């Protein structure tokens, strides 16, 4: 079963992180959604955070995990939000289990194919040799040689934890990602359609959702609207959480 944090009372609202992320990334916003009257479920997807590791890693497998989570927690008539990789999971879940989903929010990802673009990040993560028992500062110094952006490094290093006294490790399943990186870029099957209300939100400085993608999005999500957060990049919910929260709650309560 997926690891989750459940807070609040009200309509079930599932939130899913992106690649190399975890539920903790959504902790602050989750608290705001609780105050807005939702029962919030922030998940760690398989091979991420505190959830189980598996050699099987695909969008279909992740959707099945979320379905089993909903069944175990007796969740029906939910709203669902996913960022990046989690957004693709959310799209596929909504399209294949539309009876369970009322509203869908997709943060900075389209249903299209994306070519590999995490090579530098993975090179930095793979350069860390945990057998020599590095400190947190040592790990950051190594990753910094490959990942120059401070914010991205801090996002990645949230995955560090003490596996045992004196021994750090990453929470995510780096080996599986190395062996199956193509899985993350796969598109949503073109025959899948979700007809219910859908909100796509993109960062104004992010290139993940282009104007040229909108016709294709409309074919699969005919009841969609698009909002743009000016000045924000791919981590739009972290860069402008106030506007992200306002746009999403207006949509959910509308």
Structure description:
The protein is an alpha/beta fold and 254 residues long. Helix content is 35%, strand content 20%. The protein has helices at 27-35, 59-72, 85-96, 119-126, 136-144, 150-157, 174-179, 214-220, 236-239, 241-253; strands at residues 3-7, 11-16, 38-44, 78-83, 101-107, 160-164, 167-170, 198-203, 224-229. The strands form 2 sheets. Strands 1-3-2-4-5-8-9 form a 7-stranded mixed beta sheet. A two-stranded antiparallel ribbon has the order 6-7. Helix 1 links the parallel strand 2 and strand 3. Helix 2 (59-72) crosses helix 3. The two termini are 32 Å apart. The relative contact order is 0.15. The mean pLDDT is 96.
Question: Key terms for this structure?
Answer:
254 residues, 10 helices, seven-stranded mixed sheet, alpha/beta, two-stranded antiparallel ribbon
Reconstruct the topology from this structure:
Layout (H helix, E strand, L loop, with lengths): L2 E5 L3 E6 L10 H9 L2 E7 L14 H14 L5 E6 L1 H12 L4 E7 L11 H8 L9 H9 L5 H8 L2 E5 L2 E4 L3 H6 L18 E6 L10 H7 L3 E6 L6 H4 L1 H13 L1
Parallel strand pairs: 2-3, 2-4, 4-5, 5-8, 8-9
Antiparallel strand pairs: 1-3, 6-7
Helix pairs in contact: 2-3
What series of H and E elements makes up the topology? EEHEHEHEHHHEEHEHEHH
Give the assembly state of these chains. Answer: single chain
Q: Helical segment tally? A: 10
The value of Rg in angstroms is: 18 Å
Beta-strand share of residues: 15-25%
Q: What overall form do the CA principal axes indicate?
A: globular
Name the strands of the widest sheet in spatial order. 1-3-2-4-5-8-9
Biggest sheet details: 7 strands, mixed
Separation of the first and last Cα atoms: 32 Å
- Briefly note the structural class of the backbone: alpha/beta
Low-confidence stretches: none
**Mean pLDDT across every amino acid position:** 96
Helix content: 25-40%
* Structure summary, number of beta strands: 9
């Amino acid at each position: 079963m997926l690891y989750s944090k459940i807070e609040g009372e009200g309509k079930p609202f599932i939130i899913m992180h992106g690649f190399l992320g975890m539920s903790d990334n959504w902790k602050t916003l989750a608290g705001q959604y609780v105050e807005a009257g939702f029962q919030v479920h922030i998940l760690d997807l398989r091979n991420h955070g505190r959830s189980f590791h598996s050699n099987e890693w695909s969008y279909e497998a992740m959707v099945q995990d979320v379905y089993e989570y909903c069944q175990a927690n007796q969740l029906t008539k939910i709203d669902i939000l996913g960022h990046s990789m989690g957004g693709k999971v959310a799209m596929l879940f909504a399209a294949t289990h539309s009876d369970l989903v009322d509203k869908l929010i997709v943060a900075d990802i389209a249903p299209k194919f994306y070519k590999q673009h995490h090579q530098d990040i993975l090179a930095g993560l793979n350069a860390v040799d945990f057998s020599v028992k590095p400190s947190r500062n040592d790990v950051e110094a190594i990753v910094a040689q490959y990942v120059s952006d401070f914010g991205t490094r801090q996002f990645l290093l949230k995955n560090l934890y003490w596996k045992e006294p004196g021994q750090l490790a990453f929470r995510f399943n780096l080996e599986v990602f190395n062996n199956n990186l193509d899985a993350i870029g796969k598109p949503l099957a073109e025959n899948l359609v979700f007809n219910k209300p859908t909100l796509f939100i993109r960062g104004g400085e992010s290139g993940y959702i282009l104007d040229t993608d909108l016709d294709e999005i409309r074919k699969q999500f005919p009841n969609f609207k698009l909002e743009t957060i000016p000045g924000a990049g791919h981590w739009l919910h972290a860069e402008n959480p106030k506007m992200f929260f306002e746009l999403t709650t207006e949509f959910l309560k509308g």
